[in-house]
Design goal:
345 residues; 2 domains; 3-stranded antiparallel β-sheet; 12 helices; binds 3,4-dihydroxyphenylalanine
Length: 345
């Protein structure tokens, strides 16, 4: 009987639940294709009595609607579910996407290297402010007022405070003063930091750069200690066999003062563009701490003596990596910076 069949298939469809694309397809094949159940029931409908047709016509149309709606719902629900799973998991068989790693700035690499060498000699790391007063940047370091030595470094002055100049520090020697004022000898410290000078920016000069200051104060410290410490530093940084030489120089805060050259890292002393044919390149200033500086910081200069040195990190880096333009350090061009990726430490 047609009515019985419709009832039975209606029940089957109402209980249908797709759990895969294959279930949905099987449903379509069973009910909706041209040789499927819906079509065959319509065939059967043709041969029932007119009286039955009046009743069953509506029932059969509702059955067809139910079959189609069930199919559409299963199709869209299953389709969505599939897309959601795909979004969550992705295709786990694909090769992974490599993360782009950053790299350390060459100046940070070299600063770390310098600091590590001195740490092994028992030096502690100290830091001070970049905005300094006249006392710490100049006066305590034995720059007399109006002395032309103040013009050695073109200063960015910020303001006057209680008659005193406040400026961006021109060198890390100011940290020596802060350290000695705050403690008691012995001092053995290495002081890295950024410094500022009012200079036109070019390949060879910049308005800010970085220095590392060193200070050693104790009883009986001599120039021989200074030479041996810096000689050891150069062997560690540039390799055994690198030569050093000291030339007399002048700094207000050291007496005697010297500049230290190393044998050219490029031509090993034969003479090249970098060393202008001399075979030597200057890397730092140094000297015995002037007794006036010790006294200015409250240290008995009869009992204690010390040495100090200061070097530019950019200069050391240029020599190490043969970088010819200072501006590269602050332009943040990834083509430049990514060359140091292998140097991750
Ligand atoms: N402060 C000096 C400069 O900026 C560098 C320097 C020279 C530091 C000699 C020192 C030193 O401690 O003893 O040019």
């Amino acid at each position: 009987m047609l009515q019985e069949k419709i009832k039975q298939f209606t029940q089957e469809i109402e209980q249908f639940k797709a759990s895969s694309a294959a279930d949905v397809e099987n449903f379509r094949l069973k009910f909706l294709v041209s040789k499927g159940i819906v079509k065959s029931l319509f065939e059967e409908f043709k041969s029932v009595s007119n009286e039955e047709k009046r009743v069953l016509g509506k029932v059969l149309n509702e059955f067809k609607q139910l079959a189609e709606n069930t199919f559409q719902e299963a199709l869209s629900a299953f389709g969505k579910e599939k897309a959601a799973i795909k979004r969550q998991e992705g295709d786990l068989t694909l090769p992974g996407e490599g993360l782009q790693l950053g790299s350390r700035h060459p100046l940070s690499l070299v600063r770390k290297e310098i600091v590590e060498i001195f740490k092994k000699l028992g030096f502690i790391v100290a830091e001070g402010p970049e905005i300094e007063d006249d006392w710490h940047n100049f006066s305590a370091l034995n720059f007399p007022p109006e002395h032309p030595a103040r013009d050695m470094q073109d200063t960015f002055f910020i303001k006057k405070q209680d008659g005193n100049d406040i400026a961006l520090r021109t060198h890390t020697s100011s940290v020596q003063v802060r350290l000695m004022e705050a403690g008691k000898p012995p001092f053995r410290a290495i002081m890295p930091g950024r410094v500022y000078r009012n200079e036109a920016i070019s390949a060879r000069a910049h308005c800010f750069f970085h220095q590392v200051e060193g200070l050693y104060v104790d009883e009986n410290v001599s120039f021989a200690d200074l030479k041996q410490t810096l000689f050891h530093f150069v062997q560690e940084l540039y390799g055994e066999g690198t030569k050093v030489r000291f030339r007399p120089s002048y700094f207000p805060f050291t007496e005697p003062s010297a500049e230290m050259d190393i044998s050219c890292t490029i031509c090993k002393g034969a003479g090249c563009n970098l060393c202008k044919g001399s075979g030597w390149v200057e890397i730092l200033g140094c000297g015995m701490v002037d007794p006036n500086v010790l006294e200015n910081c409250g240290i008995d200069s009869k009992k204690y003596s010390g040495f100090a040195f200061g070097m530019g990190i950019e200069r050391i880096t240029n020599l190490k990596y043969e970088i010819k333009d200072l501006r590269l350090f602050s332009e943040n061009d990834v083509r430049f910076l990514s060359q140091f990726e292998t140097e991750l430490i």
